[in-house]
Amino acid sequence: MNIIYFFTGILIFLFFIQFAITSVREKKTRAIIVSLSSAILVAMIWFSCYILAPSNSPLLVIPIGVVVILLALYLLPYGKPQAIKTNPADERVDERDIMFAREEYEPGSKKYDVYYKMRPENKKIDDKIRKLPAILEPGGRYYDPALADYIIRLFDFNESMIAMVDGDVNPKKEDINPSAMTKQIKQMTLDLGADEVGVAGLNPAWVYSHAGRGPKEWGSPIENNHNYAIAFTLEMDYGHVEKSPYLTITEETARQYMHGALISIKLADYIRSLGYPARAHIAGSNYQIMLPPVAYDAGLGELGRHGYLISPKYGSRVRLGAVTTDLPLIADKPIAFGVQDFCEKCKKCAVNCPSNAIPYGDRTTVRGIEKWQLDMEACLMAWRALGSDCGLCMKSCPFSHPPAFVHDIVRLGIKNSPLARKISVWGDDLFYGKKAKY
Ligand code: SF4
Ligand code: SF4
């Protein structure tokens, strides 16, 4: 009995030491202090009992039993995690209504007159937003001329690739085995540099109804009847995200968008060479589809309270890319790994949002999908005031910790157990604090 008790204590102690080492790597001072204090506390209590208890005392079974039961409740699967309820409406989103389109309508221009005649309710708030300095232009709190110039060039590079997103389809169509082709396309996407990949049947509800940005005529209908979307994630560098809301977050966003553009353009080009239409959807002014719900359908993650996709491995620190196509493929299914339940309790992104854009309350049904609805206008106002794309919700999200043994254990618990979700919300606040530092 003494030996089992002794080794149980050693394992708990080593877990906290491992936590401290991980926290040193991640430069998380509070987590280093809490994990080292926990290791010392466990060692003192556990080994005092060991010394005080008579040799091989049956009483030692009690603490061992408590630890085993708690571990089982934390890690073993019970209770299915709730999935996002979707029943998408037929109504599609007009790209002219998204904030990145609306902020481009200059007073006195034809677009301005036409749009606000169509949507007078948006005029007041949009005029207010336009009065704030634009991102990457002087005036924002974290404006940095050298870095801003570099980021503008990254975005310009993306825009310069727009001509390559679509092209001629080889008139000779290859015979395709959908299962083998799905495997091949996924491997190619990963080889090109994506971190995770999935296939979704393309739901027409996620295709914009009218063009609001980019080379296509403003207001013209978007025709994209492709059957599938190949969606992928790109991990955003942890160090860059940690510096949010400084401009480095925007630098990392632009860098990953550029990678995403290269991957999707090459992939679409290959598919067209097989005789099937394919179009890359790249950042800037080129999307025809809404990426987060498409990536959700492709089984790449769940939508969090902050509106981003949360991937099982990289959490909120991902950017998305996609190719739509008629190449025969096998679609993946959406996944649920505890995010909905966790987000209900957590609310850390809402606490850290400088513009109160993230709701504290319950999910609402928006166009048939049950989710937390972000206040896009408030978010963009914060971006413009900060002069960067903020990223505080991404940085503060407990799912954003980089892959590491201790974080992977917590993620496994969150996926498997309702108790783990409760404890982990509290644990994240204890180890990392409720408010992100910047
Ligand atoms: S990016 Fe910033 S302002 Fe926008 S929702 Fe996230 S925390 Fe709020
Ligand atoms: S910070 Fe918390 S509530 Fe917000 S998305 Fe992440 S897990 Fe969900």
Q: How would you describe this structure to a colleague?
A:
Helix content is 48%, strand content 8%. The chain has 438 residues and is of the alpha+beta class. The strands form three sheets. The protein has a four-stranded antiparallel beta sheet, with helices on both faces. Strand 4 and strand 5 form a beta hairpin. The longest helix is centred in the middle third of the chain and has 26 residues. One iron/sulfur cluster binds next to helix 12 and helix 13.
Distance between the termini: 49 Å
Largest sheet: 4 strands, antiparallel
Low-confidence stretches: none
Helical fraction: 40-55%
Mean pLDDT: 93
Taken in chain order, the helices and strands follow as: HHHHHHHHEEHHEHEEEHHEEHHHH
What share of the residues does DSSP label as strand, in percent?
A: 5-15%
As for the number of domains, it is 2
Tally of strands: 8
**How is the largest sheet built, in terms of strand order?**
1-2-6-3
How is the secondary structure organized here?
Layout: H1 2-25, H2 29-52, H3 61-75, H4 99-102, H5 110-118, H6 123-131, H7 145-160, H8 178-191, E1 196-201, E2 228-235, H9 238-242, H10 248-273, E3 278-281, H11 291-297, E4 302-303, E5 309-310, E6 318-325, H12 339-346, H13 348-352, E7 364-366, E8 369-371, H14 376-386, H15 392-396, H16 405-416, H17 418-432
Antiparallel strand pairs: 1-2, 2-6, 3-6, 4-5, 7-8
Helix pairs in contact: 1-2, 7-10, 12-17, 16-17
This protein binds iron/sulfur cluster (2 copies).
Question: Can I get a quick summary?
Answer:
By secondary structure, this protein is of the alpha+beta class. Helices cover 48% and strands 8% of the residues.
